[in-house]
Amino acid sequence: MLNIRQLDRVVENEGTGLWLALHEVMDPQNLGGIIWSAYFFGASGVVLCAKNSAPHSGVVSKASVDLLELTELWSCKNMM
């Protein structure tokens, strides 16, 4: 997972251009399900708030049906 400040510019890719911004998703199974849904609907990536967010673990990976490894994840301190 990379910090959002490292993102220089948005590069066009094969995705839809849709990015999900998740704020304080604390349940790892919910986070995994959201990541799975984002991948299914063709989202280009997911931005997670580092504060009060579920840690990346085996539970998240299992709930996302191992799509956690294929989804581009970015983090930020807060959503402001």
Task: Describe it.
24% of the residues lie in helices and 19% in strands. By secondary structure, the protein is of the alpha/beta class. It has one domain (2-9, 16-76): SPOUT methyltransferase, trefoil knot domain (Alpha/beta knot, 3-Layer(aba) Sandwich). The protein has a four-stranded parallel β-sheet with strand order 1-4-3-2, covered by helices on one side. Helix 1 links the parallel strand 2 and strand 3 (45-49). The mean pLDDT is 83.
Question: Any key phrases for this structure?
Answer:
4-stranded parallel β-sheet; 19% strand; globular; 80 residues; alpha/beta; 4 strands; 2 helices; Alpha/beta knot
In total, the number of strands is: 4
Strand content: 15-25%
Low-pLDDT windows of residues: none
Biggest sheet layout: 4 strands, parallel
Q: Treating each run of at least 4 consecutive H or I residues as one helix, how many helices? A: 2
CATH C-level category: Alpha Beta
Structural class: alpha/beta
Order of helices and strands: EEHEHE
So, the CATH homologous superfamily?
A: SPOUT methyltransferase, trefoil knot domain
Query: From the coordinates shown, what is the CATH architecture?
Result: 3-Layer(aba) Sandwich
Q: State the helicity in percent bands.
A: 10-25%
Distance between the ends = 19 Å
Task: Please sum up the structure shown.
This protein is α/β, with parallel strands linked by helices and 80 residues long. 24% of the residues lie in helices and 19% in strands.
